[in-house]
Automatic annotation (TrEMBL), chain A:
<feature type="domain" description="CMP/dCMP-type deaminase">
    <location>
        <begin position="54"/>
        <end position="185"/>
    </location>
</feature>
<dbReference type="InterPro" id="IPR016193">
    <property type="entry name" value="Cytidine_deaminase-like"/>
</dbReference>
<protein>
    <recommendedName>
        <fullName>tRNA(adenine(34)) deaminase</fullName>
        <ecNumber>3.5.4.33</ecNumber>
    </recommendedName>
</protein>
<feature type="compositionally biased region" description="Low complexity">
    <location>
        <begin position="7"/>
        <end position="25"/>
    </location>
</feature>
<dbReference type="GO" id="GO:0052717">
    <property type="term" value="F:tRNA-specific adenosine-34 deaminase activity"/>
</dbReference>
<dbReference type="Pfam" id="PF00383">
    <property type="entry name" value="dCMP_cyt_deam_1"/>
</dbReference>
<keyword id="KW-0378">Hydrolase</keyword>
<dbReference type="GO" id="GO:0005737">
    <property type="term" value="C:cytoplasm"/>
</dbReference>
<keyword id="KW-0862">Zinc</keyword>
Automatic annotation (TrEMBL), chain B:
<dbReference type="GO" id="GO:0005634">
    <property type="term" value="C:nucleus"/>
</dbReference>
<feature type="compositionally biased region" description="Polar residues">
    <location>
        <begin position="472"/>
        <end position="482"/>
    </location>
</feature>
<dbReference type="GO" id="GO:0008033">
    <property type="term" value="P:tRNA processing"/>
</dbReference>
<keyword id="KW-0819">tRNA processing</keyword>
<dbReference type="InterPro" id="IPR016193">
    <property type="entry name" value="Cytidine_deaminase-like"/>
</dbReference>
<dbReference type="GO" id="GO:0052717">
    <property type="term" value="F:tRNA-specific adenosine-34 deaminase activity"/>
</dbReference>
<comment type="similarity">
    <text>Belongs to the cytidine and deoxycytidylate deaminase family. ADAT3 subfamily.</text>
</comment>
<protein>
    <submittedName>
        <fullName>Uncharacterized protein</fullName>
    </submittedName>
</protein>
<feature type="region of interest" description="Disordered">
    <location>
        <begin position="472"/>
        <end position="504"/>
    </location>
</feature>
Amino acid sequence: MAISEQTSIPSTPPITSNPTTSTTTSPPPDCHDSLMPSQFPAVPAVFGPVPNRAYHEGFMRKAIEMAELALASDETPVGCVFVHNGEVIGRGINGTNASLNGTRHAEFVGLAEIMAKHPQRILTQTDLYVTVEPCIMCASALRQYGIRAVYFGCLNDRFGGCGGVMQIHADRGVDPPYPVYGGLFREEAIMLLRRFYVQENEKGWRQAMKTAREVSLTKRLFAAPEPKPKKNRELKTEILPVTNVNPTANLTRTSTPAG
Amino acid sequence: MAARADSKAPSPTEPAELPVRQMIHLKTKEECRLGNETIQVWAVEMPSKHAEGILKVVKDRIEGQDAVDLQHLRRFAKPKSLPKHVLGKRDLIKEMYAIPRAWESTPLSVMQAPSTAVWEYSVPAKPRINHKPQTLYLLICGTNLISLSELHNLLLEYAPFCSSADSWAYPLEIKEVTVPRQAPTSPAQADMWTDNYWPTFYRKTNPFGAHPATIAKAEEDLSHPGYESVGVEEAMILAERAAHETQAMGYGVGPGCTIIERVDNKAEILAVAGDARHKALPSTAGMTDAQDACSGNVMGHAVMRAIGMIGRKRLRVASHPVSSKAAKAERTFENCGLDHDEKARDGFFLDLPVTPLEEEYFAQDNIKPDGYLCLRLEVFLTHEPCIMCSMALVHSRVGKVIFSERMTQTGGLTAEMVSNDTGPVGLGYGLCWRKELNWQFMCWEYAQQEEEKAGKAGKAIPVGNVDHHQATSTASANTNPDQHLALTSAPTSAPAKPTAMLSDDNANVSSFASTHV
Ligand SMILES: [Zn+2]
Ligand SMILES: [Zn+2]
């Protein structure tokens, strides 16, 4: 329980439940703002229009399917596929629980499948579709590997490296930057994560009830206080539209929810 | 790659030639960003007997003073403890009422203070110099809280500035003074600020990073390890040896990593890994796929490998519940239709030992069962890790990181971006201590003492200059980012270079500077 909670890559519980804490409404952190004013044009593009959207949604659907499978096995529901010339060459789900390695994110699992059969340079002609924005670590790895483009569902407001917390894909650096397109099936990606947290919480709740019953039986106590799931772990279904990533993009985005 | 066979890491067989190194705690991002902020305050001089009274007036009558914490500054300062430029500041009141007062041109005159019946000799300006050891300067408040004229009118209501004998001896003079906005993070910084701004306390706190006492304790543990323990020097030499071995085999480009668990000053070496980015992938049948000398398989970075080895060790010693949970997660891969070519996977992640030295430490079951990731472990690195590896350390919940050589174009831990005497010092990510992320760890550069002195001299620049430097960088990034890159690729950008590496020609050093470690 502790492991799966703490190692889960993405966490978006507060993404819509409290608009004031949602990172989608706060300006991006300033990691490089004084050095890198040019990074900001890249950020609104995260939820900008996706050219040929239907084509990319087809592959994002496959990434969502991976995440659904993961959720069905009580694994963090993040899924990804790597696509080369219209063909899926790598798929990934979170591998941290299997490896006890907190860095074994879905993207890395997908890369491992690719590199089992292909030379590394294929990545310069390959696009990634991932249900949750890559974290800072993965964003840097993808850039070092020379990924061509990244498409994602929802922002990762805890660790995001492609606009959620930092802009590793676009910052000044020795490797060429790559474009990112966010918001493909965004609501579904968020709902997958919420379902996971509710599911995990209910498991914890059932376990707590069981423990409480055992305690009360063995100690001949009257009913122990009933542990209840935290209110914020209830499954919320309403999802606020993307408001903005960059303050300047505010006006154009509020009325056009992406994804 | 063969060209890189020249030793990047100093040879482990000649430790005597290593210069004496010491740990220098890295500044955090917030320390760099906010630590040099200043704020404008009003200050006024008065006889010390009136000091408490005026302070009470200030506290009672000026609102909003709690919003800004200036506890690190002395509220009252003796004139002699103030910097000369503060004492010599223009009197703003005089400027506001730019009409010369009659007595100022009269050296000596007999006056009667308006509300008293006492006649006295008074020379308004002179008593300060002649007979007044007992004045104090009061730091009133930020200039944003009250306007100059409002403050002037307020103070004129009270002694000694209201009409009284003293008011002629101590005419109200309000100065605007620049003071540090945040508490200093070291005694040296407090001294510097006292000399340059206003008497400043060092209160042994750091609002922007680890507590100074925690840092000091860690430095003591690592610099003076117990008899059977492992210190920073030994751990670093081990990382250098690991780097040297994989480099000699043609796998690595020079970086190495040691991970240690320290409990009650007893240390266990859990993992040792050298860089192995050029170890051939299964898919390439013995050929490495490097486009240039330094890229290769990113998973082969020493940090990623060492973290992976820890995970594999944890699996090996896990209790039944933990290992069955991991096995269940493993089965999920099958449920998801993912291939299970273990050989290919291991070849990609490179989280198994590839040298006898790595094997020696990997083979030991010296890790506690059911520990969590790399929680609070110590990581020793020959080089500052790249952004990916820095974030991998955050994800793995490490406790301390010590690296030897800064990577100014690729490193993810350094928070500073400004240039000092030795050149640009980093990208400014400061991933070791970011409030935005859910984990922070202490981080040190392990550098030569001589360099440390040079570095300090370079950093001891007045506050204003820091912003100026950043503004300059912004301008150059605006106009031509490549130009900025070109500047950072100068060979001077690696400040803590062991002498053994100076034999590299400049081109090599320069290309290595842009390598991700
Ligand atoms: Zn990741
Ligand atoms: Zn790295």
